[in-house]
UniProtKB/TrEMBL annotation:
Descriptive protein name: Molybdopterin molybdenumtransferase
Start and end residues of each MoaB/Mog domain: 182-325
Top-level enzyme category: transferase
SMART domains with a match to the protein in the record: MoCF_biosynth
Amino acid sequence: MHTPISRKDAVQKLLRRARPAKARPVAPMDGVGLAAGLDAAALCDVPEHACSVRDGYAVRSEDVERARPSAPVRLEVRGCLRAESVDPEILEPGTAVRVLTGGPVPPGADAVYAEEDVREEDGHILAGEPVRSGWFVRAAGGEIAAGTVITPAGGEITPQAAAVMTRTRVDSILVHPRPRVRLMALGSELAKPGIDPAELPASGTARFPADNLVLLKGLFEAAGAKVERTGVIPDDRERLISVLSGPDLPEIIATTGGTGNSERDFAFEAALEAGFEPLFKHIDIRPGRNMFAAAHGNTLLFGLPGPPAAGHACFHAVILPVVRRLRGLPEPKPRTARFTQAINVRPGSEWLVQCRLEIQGSTLTATPLAGKAVPPMHGLAQAHGLAVLQSGQTLTPGDEAEILTTLF
């Protein structure tokens, strides 16, 4: 008889075994969605040189400090600088240069008049107001300075961070690859989703599509893993042992079904015969009590119960933190939501309750999808995550509880 392990102890045991793959170099655009193996920092200032943020005229502020509407200062315009201009000449006293947005502010100039703030006349501008030093000028490094950390080690590369890296001349960053996943639904009654029922063998057994494969593939990919293979294995112990004994196993294997107590529930024993080391056989959560976990080399095996709601619960409660660790991400801080309805759970285990999540103003709310009024599969279809409730706990509207979800 195996004593069920607590959810927290199960997660910590798994995290001690989970190690992200060695970080590898990729271009920033190819690293989006991956975790940085080292700090990724800007390699140059943006802008590289002081530039204008308006179409106008670059001037020396000291030349126009006495400008008044009744006595405008007249400056000769010498040339035009555009965004692509390089190495502008020094601006001489008493002169101005036409400069377009993004164009470099020449040495000697320290301010820019917007074109609507001056009057043009015969190759000159008439400035009727003084201008402060720095006016409409973006200093070198004014957007981002060289050496600024764009994404710290362990942070997820966002599209916007990748764009900033590219602009700051970062051509290679170190990232952890996505953990590879293989999914197997166990049961002779199952068919791989998408197969025409007419193509199924006439075995006399009523078959239905393995919905767990669709559920878990979506959950793993939403969590940032890479599902390489999915398949259905009938109730054939030797075939399962053969698959689990195969070469080049991925970082994660997840099976569904075969974890109960009948003669057809042999997933745990097959894993042991294939050389896997058991980590735990039962876990003290509902639903999902019959989940087990095992390890072989760098591969973690999760045996999930067959009911989809149980697989959904086990993924969020146990597997999601492991996926994050394998991706090189830090453990997230617990997130809570405020309940919109009352709920109570029976004593005996930690309960994972399906919930619909919404953001109302600045508050995350949870509506439980449980009880006789909500059929399990209908509730699963609407659920965005699960609330963690302790044995015998009662919540009233406005109470808060920990939420497990892939939404954030």
